[in-house]
């Protein structure tokens, strides 16, 4: 075995886990400094190296710096956010209305990552039964970009409080192209130490040991080292 086929060095592993642990969804801390082209290309390349069903690579990337387009998307957000707020009552509604849930205008670059549902023709290897695997693949591209961005000191915020049809119209997407992720990108004043929704009292991270089952849904793990490590080991 070549040494490069073994696990990474400790420093490299630490770097990867740090990016995973310290990645944040950013909406309140954007700076207006532009992202240099070579850095943006590194992020796009990270996304493009994601796994995809049958190597379909169903993604395209729409880089949006036009204020006019961003303002149009912001209007869609405002309307959908009003509707979303009506799902809550009392204190929860007040809290919801105080949450900042997008940074469309404050971030210098918006990026829409789409899924071309026809790419690769009618028979994509691995997508015969589960048609959504193309969408899953695009989500992995989003995550690659999100982690690479963290390592570059760039914040990413995913805005999904949007009407997909109106978004597709605004971005002039063809019928077969679905806008999976609308992302805001930019350098930040800080990365919060924990999710903003947790800091604001909306929802907390669930304990991992409650989410790990053994051999079937709802079955506890056998008593043993895995169970002990799950209780003891922090990320
Ligand atoms: C598919 C999807 C869609 C959205 C999000 C995420 C994902 C994965 N998140 C971000 C989300 O709130 C955030 O990831 C969690 O709160 C956890 O925080 P960190 O990402 O760990 O900072 C998000 N945040 C927000 O402010 N407005 C939004 O519309 C969305 N939409």
UniProtKB/TrEMBL annotation:
Q: Which InterPro entries match?
A: BluB, Nitroreductase, Nitroreductase-like, Nitroreductase/BluB
What are the protein's UniProt keywords? Flavoprotein, FMN, Oxidoreductase
Instruction: Return the Gene3D superfamilies for the record.
Output: NADH Oxidase
Q: Which GO MF term does the entry hold, naming one?
A: 5,6-dimethylbenzimidazole synthase activity
Keyword Protein biosynthesis applies: no
Could you tell me which residue ranges the Nitroreductase domain spans? 20-187
**Its EC number(s):** 1.13.11.79
Q: What is this protein called?
A: 5,6-dimethylbenzimidazole synthase
Q: What organism is this sequence from? A: Litchfieldella rifensis
